[in-house]
């Protein structure tokens, strides 16, 4: 199944947040490219930790959906910042392929590993777009729809602006 997603609002909001952060810390995108990639990898790790798909040694269930969604949108913030930093223009319409099926823990783990393997190679527009698409596919695999993702992004974006206003 193909899903078309409009990320224009997220890109606009991220540009404003990034301006706020850069102004507060006297930075430019060129100063933080490596940090953005590492932050993205850390957020991806935190998401995997909440999902627990790789924890073959544990019977504990994944975290609640809202906690997983919150971790997921942290990744949206960083991949969007990286896309902006590399001049990947707003996606008016980004189309992803999504296989509507129940994914096993193993399949989700493999999906995470593929994202991890490519995180440090996010230095071209094509790779960033490909990674972004795969990350959006992951959101659907985790049973989020784009309205939920966008609403959670908006909430976290507000929090991030407040943090900048309070010398976070």
List the helices and strands and how they pair.
Layout lengths: L1 E4 L2 H18 L7 H19 L13 H21 L8 E4 L7 H15 L5 H17 L4 H20 L3
Helix pairs in contact: 1-3, 1-6, 2-3, 2-4, 3-5, 3-6, 4-5
Account of the 3D structure:
This protein is mainly alpha-helical. It has one domain: all-alpha NTP pyrophosphatase fold (Orthogonal Bundle), CATH 1.10.4010. The protein is 65% helix and 5% strand. The chain contains 6 helices and 2 strands; from the N terminus they run E-H-H-H-E-H-H-H. It has helices at residues 8-25, 33-51, 65-85, 105-119, 125-141, 146-165; strands at 2-5, 94-97. The protein has a two-stranded antiparallel ribbon with strand order 1-2. It is globular and about 45 Å long. The mean pLDDT is 93.
Q: In what range is the share of β-strand residues?
A: under 5%
Find the count of extended strands (DSSP E, 2+ residues).
Answer: 2
* CATH topology heading: all-alpha NTP pyrophosphatase fold
Going by CATH, the homologous superfamily would be Type II deoxyuridine triphosphatase
The first-level CATH class name: Mainly Alpha
Number of helices: 6
Helices and strands, in order, run as EHHHEHHH
Count of spatially separate domains: 1
> How large is the radius of gyration?
16 Å
Distance between the termini: 41 Å
Arrangement of strands in the largest sheet: 1-2
Q: What is the CATH architecture term?
A: Orthogonal Bundle
Describe the largest sheet. Answer: 2 strands, antiparallel
How helical, in percent, are the residues?
55-70%
Q: Please mark out the parts with pLDDT under 50 across 5 or more consecutive residues, or reply none.
A: none
Mean pLDDT: 93
- Helix and strand composition category: mainly alpha
General shape: globular
């Amino acid at each position: 199944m193909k899903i078309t997603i409009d990320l224009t609002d997220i890109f606009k909001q991220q540009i404003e947040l990034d301006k706020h952060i850069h102004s507060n810390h006297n930075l430019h995108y060129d100063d933080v490219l490596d940090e953005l990639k590492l932050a993205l990898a850390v957020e991806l790790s935190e998401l995997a930790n909440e999902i627990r798909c790789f924890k073959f040694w544990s019977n504990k269930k994944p975290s609640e959906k809202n906690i997983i969604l919150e971790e997921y949108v942290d990744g949206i913030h960083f991949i969007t910042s990286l896309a902006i930093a590399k001049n990947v223009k707003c996606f008016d319409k980004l189309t992803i392929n999504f296989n509507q099926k129940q994914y096993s823990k193993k399949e989700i783990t493999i999906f995470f590993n593929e994202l991890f393997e490519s995180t440090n190679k996010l230095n071209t527009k094509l790779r960033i777009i490909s990674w972004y698409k795969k990350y959006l596919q992951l959101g659907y695999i985790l049973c989020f729809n784009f309205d939920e993702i966008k609403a959670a992004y908006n909430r976290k974006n507000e929090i991030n602006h407040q943090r900048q206003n309070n010398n976070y």
